[in-house]
From TrEMBL:
CDD domains: Rieske (cd03467)
GO cellular component, one term: plasma membrane
Protein name: Cytochrome bc1 complex Rieske iron-sulfur subunit
UniProtKB keywords: 2Fe-2S, Cell membrane, Disulfide bond, Electron transport, Iron, Iron-sulfur, Membrane, Metal-binding, Oxidoreductase, Respiratory chain, Transmembrane, Transmembrane helix, Transport
Lineage: Bacteria, Bacillati, Actinomycetota, Actinomycetes, Mycobacteriales
Annotated function: Iron-sulfur subunit of the cytochrome bc1 complex, an essential component of the respiratory electron transport chain required for ATP synthesis. The bc1 complex catalyzes the oxidation of menaquinol and the reduction of cytochrome c in the respiratory chain. The bc1 complex operates through a Q-cycle mechanism that couples electron transfer to generation of the proton gradient that drives ATP synthesis.
UniProt-listed PANTHER family: CYTOCHROME B-C1 COMPLEX SUBUNIT RIESKE, MITOCHONDRIAL
Superkingdom of the source species: Bacteria
């Protein structure tokens, strides 16, 4: 601890002291011993100092330019999805990498400036301080302010107007680089979409919504087949060989007590059995269906004796086909995939927070944080005996966010 008594200093005395005196007093009161201190540029108007300042400004300018580049790409670069063979695919492909690169450079250049500034402008100093406890009193507060003033002056930043402006600009642009992308998440969930739904299609719809446009949708089984580019007489095609990624299913393809995840497969994208054609480029459509965030559906086949015990939800008594029940796989808690089906108890389990839904009672939650039933997809078989969606889901999928009756 210091031997100097702070009570010896009246407010009047403190006011009369210069900044240098207060700064020195502050270090003494804090028990700080400055063992070594050397200004980076002791001679005034040293050309080396000006060169260093210019180099430092260059880092700030680079940071600002990268930040402006990021904002320009974010606002004006074509970002809407392009598939294989579509015009503009390459431009679209660079959208995300460019955003990452420019955001990284903005922060990197700003970071380099800070490190370089400390190394080249702030006086070199070795100080030792002993620790003391308790809150700061008036003397401490004033002397600390004086020390900060001293740091501001000796760092030379106080008299470098160009650098101050660039630093403020760099900080603002770096802040925008972080904040601007959040703007893309601001959407009006009640806005009417093209299907007449409330919403912009992201929360209210899924691949199964196509059913309402008159598109016939099969319950597609994922074979896991991977596409390769193929040369045929009609040019290059990007398809799987022999078997397509999504294939139609018949009831006999699933054993009793089994569960399978299925995805919407549009009539025009069917490429299996006797309809297989290596020139049909449907792989990308299949992958869109598989990756659609609300598309996955659990198709459950119960034993007939169990199906006879099922309690249907009011108004949804004909949503199942025989012993087959199709529930959305997206948990109504916060949207994890409810991937586990326990055939003995007929419980559907969500691994995220352990919610359980009863397949014998229209997917009603019976344990855990989920409060609403899993939406059920109305299904049937078509004239060829393939499982198809009879209609769209009757309610929004996923987390129980709003406007659901159960
Ligand atoms: S997301 Fe399913 S229990 Fe939380």
């Amino acid at each position: 601890m210091t031997d100097i008594n702070k009570d010896n200093y009246s407010e009047q005395e403190l006011k009369s002291m210069s900044n240098d005196e207060l700064a020195r007093l502050g270090t003494e009161l804090d028990g700080v011993t400055v063992a070594y201190r050397k200004k980076r540029f002791p001679i005034e108007n040293d050309p080396a100092e000006e060169r260093a300042a210019i180099q430092l400004n260059v880092w700030l300018i680079l940071s600002i330019l990268s930040g402006i580049g990021f904002l320009a790409v974010y606002l004006f670069w074509p970002w809407e999805y392009k598939g294989h063979g579509d015009e503009g695919l390459w431009t679209y492909t660079f959208y995300t990498p460019l955003l990452g690169l420019l955001a990284g450079l903005t922060l990197l250049f700003l970071g380099v400036f800070i490190v370089q500034y400390v190394k080249r402008m702030i006086p070199e100093e070795v100080s030792v301080q002993r620790r003391h406890d308790g809150p700061s009193d008036e003397v401490d507060r004033r002397t600390m302010t004086a020390l900060l003033n001293d740091a501001w002056q000796t760092s030379t930043l106080g008299r470098r107007k160009a650098m101050q402006g660039l630093l403020a600009g760099g900080a603002i642009v770096a802040g925008l680089v972080i904040i601007a992308p959040l703007g893309g998440m601001v959407k009006n969930p009640w806005k009417r979409g093209e299907l007449g739904y409330e919403g912009d299609g992201t929360l209210w719809t899924s691949g199964w919504t196509l059913q309402e446009k008159g598109v016939k949708l099969y319950l597609g089984r994922d074979t896991g087949a991977v596409a390769e580019p193929h040369e045929t007489a009609t040019g290059q095609h990007y398809t799987t060989e022999g078997i397509s990624r999504l294939v139609r299913m018949r009831p006999e393809d699933l054993d009793a007590q089994a569960m399978e995840t299925v995805f919407p497969l549009a009539e025009e994208d069917v490429n299996d059995g006797d309809r297989y054609d290596p020139r049909k480029d449907v792989y990308e459509h299949h992958m869109h269906s598989i990756h659609g965030p609300r598309n996955a559906v659990m198709l459950i086949r119960m034993r007939s004796s169990d199906a006879a015990r099922v309690i249907e939800r009011k108004g949804q008594e004909d949503f199942h086909y025989g012993d087959f029940y199709a529930y959305s796989k997206i948990c109504t808690h916060i949207g994890c995939p409810t991937s586990l089906y326990e055939a003995q108890t007929h419980r559907i389990l969500c691994p995220c927070h352990q919610s359980q839904f009863d397949a014998l009672q229209y997917g009603k939650p019976v344990f855990g944080p989920a409060a609403r039933a899993l939406p059920q997809l109305p299904i049937t078989v078509d004239e060829e005996g393939y499982l198809v969606a009879k209609d769209n889901f009757a309610e929004p999928l996923g987390p129980a966010f709003w406007e659901r009756e159960s």
